[in-house]
């Protein structure tokens, strides 16, 4: 689990926070804190598709699955 | 059975929308945002407290500017109407601003007070408001140490109470300035569009009339209120005593759709990318049978391709009408609307001018051109702005004896319906041909291989411009050649993009409009 979390965190920090993870807690909302916008959500989905060989369905595009490191990690656990 | 009430159009000032609905429907839910459900009476009382604080504690007078930097929320709505009650000018600023882009706006606006929310406190702090003579900043739950700055910071909770408080009694004329809204503009610096109470009132009434809005309407608002189309959703529904549901998470469309079902939303509004996203990245199809309450969807904010319109018609419930509309910040919001009954017959049209608006197609000498011939769309009416704030030169360029020059090219058919042909300043010279990127963008959509795209020109020594298409493909395995091959069947050779760049999603503004300067950065990277 911690390996999954580390991968997700590294992707978010590298791609959306210019490599600086200041203020990014596991439960920080990506959208409410302006870390990721709608374009970014699709990039995140694409990363999950490729990195973990899963398929994120349209119905699954909800904050409970994708809007924080914690949510993404638990979502992946269910999918994998 | 509920009786639908359409409020008479006797508002003369923008905050009358709130005050009159608070009088007619004090206990009705006016606003829903996550766990917050606020009635008209509650919002009006809070707005009265804010107006009182601004006048008595901050010395706000008529004509003073108050800047608002906030996401859509209850406090936004209270602030908007509360500031207007004082006779001051409200200037909602984009939530996309960074310190470097916020400073010139604050310098130009000279606001006495800035109202903001926790999400923007860091931005204000980093901007360093010291040089701008701002007297006070009002923020919900301020967290940062402001003591080192020469500006007083007040907590929203301490100033804005919920106990009964009468409406402010300030004499304001409908011709006085109410709002300065900065346009994103594709090039150059943002310009502050000056709108009076009358501008906004007249446009709001026209929109209510053609959409047949009444107190039973429940609008899902995913567009930001600092964008004029978003703001018109607020004003129109408050004018008729309807309900506005705020959802700032359109990035998760399934979440928005679920709330539309739960709240029995009757109206949804978006820009072209909103609908492209709904069609291709959301479970809209599986919600078709659950959207029984959805009476209409409306679209403005630029040209939407025929491809998207046809797909949308197929996927939305049959009873849901689709309104295609056209407008501009300079027109307080709206200029035209297509009767939804003509959606299929006039699928490429933006319709006819809405009540009180005139629209003509003029040539470069200001002469009206015959139907079928293209020219610039020039508008008139009580909704047209007074000019750009502190920018007489830019004002003179687009407001003259003919009316408001929209900068949009278009034509009228023989029945008087208008059609858009693209932006005047987007025309590109490619190898001696004058090319309208919109035509190529539409062809790319027609291939059915593309979710969204934009076509741009980059300077080229040989051709003048080289055409580049930035494209989000529907399918990962799609190739550049597949797309070009299909375009080749629809376009002459010289209109084919020289290059197709694939992106996962086009960069956008918070309003959902495509961010062309960011697209250009992608091309030149």
Can you describe what's shown?
The complex is a heterodimer of chains A (80) and B (525). By secondary structure, chain A is an all-alpha fold. Chain A has helices at 2-16, 38-52, 63-66, 69-79. The longest helix of chain A has 15 residues, at 2-16. Chain B has 525 residues and is α/β, with parallel strands linked by helices. In chain B, 30% of the residues lie in helices and 27% in strands. In chain B, strands 1, 2, 10, 11, 12, 13, 14, 15, 16, 17, 18, 20, 21 and 22 form a 14-stranded mixed sheet that branches. In chain B, strands 4-3-5-6-7 form a five-stranded parallel sheet. In chain B, strands 8-9-19 form a three-stranded antiparallel sheet. Chain B is globular and about 65 Å long. The model of chain B has no long low-confidence stretch (mean pLDDT 93).
Helix-strand makeup class of chain B: alpha/beta
What's the helix count of chain A?
4
Work out the strand percent of chain B. Answer: 25-35%
User: Level of helix content of chain B?
Assistant: 25-40%
The largest pleated sheet of chain B is described as:
14 strands, mixed
- Rg calculated over all Cα atoms of chain B: 23 Å
> Could you give the count of β-strands of chain B?
27
The beta-strand count of chain A equals 0
**How does the overall form of chain B come out from the CA principal axes?**
globular
List the topology elements.
The complex is a heterodimer of chains A (80) and B (525).
Chain A lengths: L1 H15 L21 H15 L10 H4 L2 H11 L1
Helix pairs in contact in A: 1-2, 1-4
Chain B lengths: L15 H9 L4 E5 L2 E4 H18 L7 E5 L4 H12 L3 E4 L6 H11 L3 E4 L1 H10 L8 E4 L12 E4 H4 L17 E7 L7 E6 H15 L6 E4 L6 H13 L2 E4 L6 H10 L4 E4 L1 H9 L3 H4 L8 E4 L6 H10 L5 E8 L4 E6 L10 E5 L4 E5 L12 E6 L6 E2 L3 H7 E2 L2 E10 L5 E6 L4 E3 L2 E3 L1 H10 L3 E11 L3 E10 L6 H9 L10 E4 L13 H9 L1
Helix pairs in contact in B: 1-2, 1-8, 2-3, 4-5, 7-8, 10-12, 14-15
